Amino acid sequence: MSNTYQIYLISDSTGETLDRIFLSLKAQFKNIDYKVNSYSFTRTENQILKILDLATKKQNSIILYTIVDNNLAKFLANTCDKKKIPCFGVLGSLILSFSKLFNQKASHEPSGQHVLNDEYYNRIEAIQFTMNHDDGNLINDVEKSDIILLGVSRTSKTPTSIYLANKGLKTANIPLVNKNSIPEFLKKNPDKLCVVGLTTEPERLVDIRKNRMNSLRESKHKDYTNLEKIKKEVDDAKDAFKRYKWPTIDITRKSVEETAASIIKIHQIFLRNKK
After folding, report:
1. DSSP β-ladder status, 195-199 and 248-250
2. Portion of the chain with pLDDT greater than 70, in percent
3. E strands of 54-213, at which residues?
4. d(CA 57, CA 34)
5. How far apart are CA 66 and CA 52, in angstroms?
6. How far apart are CA 275 and CA 258, in angstroms?
7. Dihedral, CA atoms, 16, 17, 18, 23, nearest 10 degrees?
8. Angle subtended by helix axes 256-274 and 157-165, to nearest 10
9. How many CB atoms within 10 Å of residue 23?
10. Lowest-pLDDT range of 9-18, 43-52, 100-109, 187-196
């Protein structure tokens, strides 16, 4: 008997919500093998029957779904029950509970979170801004940022910036290569914008940079992976953050999501202090 669990993620929209929920769920159970089968924009009974037909042919199948149409959700649950396939609705009970709490009937509209409102367009604008201001680009325009990230090379500035952009925050990131890397307007007005310094342990940075160089099949630039040189880079960056009183986050043992969550809190405090 196979020890691999076949996880079927069935959504009536993009499936993004379900993917994130399953990632959080999976993290709670170590040493379990999964094979994920994702099905987005599932909105008919015929689509469901085809998916369940595949699921019945596999061992250890489990269904997780986010379907807001009550009739379709019931059809899926009932069919899974008949076929003896474990089936779990992720949003159903929450929607019902909130409907009672708000004393309002839910719209049961698929993709309701993707409505093209101001929040959506602000997020798209933030993503575009962040991509244009990655790695020190368009530095003369960086004053329009909500957040500016500073750090030496390979301190997760770009992925963190993109994550923040998806939260609607215009984020620029600037690599600290030398003393002249920090723009003059930030030196003269260090508290005008929300600036956050990212740092990490030099030993960890050596490994990350070596992996980067190997992936690029690059053997030159030994200073880039030299531990003593990196220690000086990190120390110089920390000195600059301290000099200008910019909050600093050590990302050594943090995920991008954890780092971004800390930055968002810093940004909220920054906005409160500006009032």
Report:
1. parallel
2. 91
3. 61-66, 87-89, 147-151, 171-175, 195-199
4. 16
5. 15
6. 27
7. 90
8. 60
9. 10
10. 100-109
pLDDT at residue 3 tops 90: no
In the chain, count H helices and then E strands.
Answer: 10, 8
pTM score, two decimals? 0.65
Residue 120, CB-side half-sphere exposure with 13 Å CA sphere: 7
Are 173 and 148 within 8 A, CB to CB? yes
Domains recognised in the chain with CATH numbers: 4-114 (3.40.50.2300), 118-274 (3.40.50)
In this prediction, residue 274 carries a pLDDT of: 86
Nearest to 199, CA basis, from 262, 145, 144: 262
- The two three-digit tokens of residue 111, written as one number: 């993709």
- CA 96, 97, 101: angle at the middle one, nearest 5? 120
CA-atom Rg of the chain in angstroms: 24
Q: Are 43 and 72 in contact (CB under 8 A)?
A: yes
Position 171: which residue type?
A: T
pLDDT above 50 (res 1): no
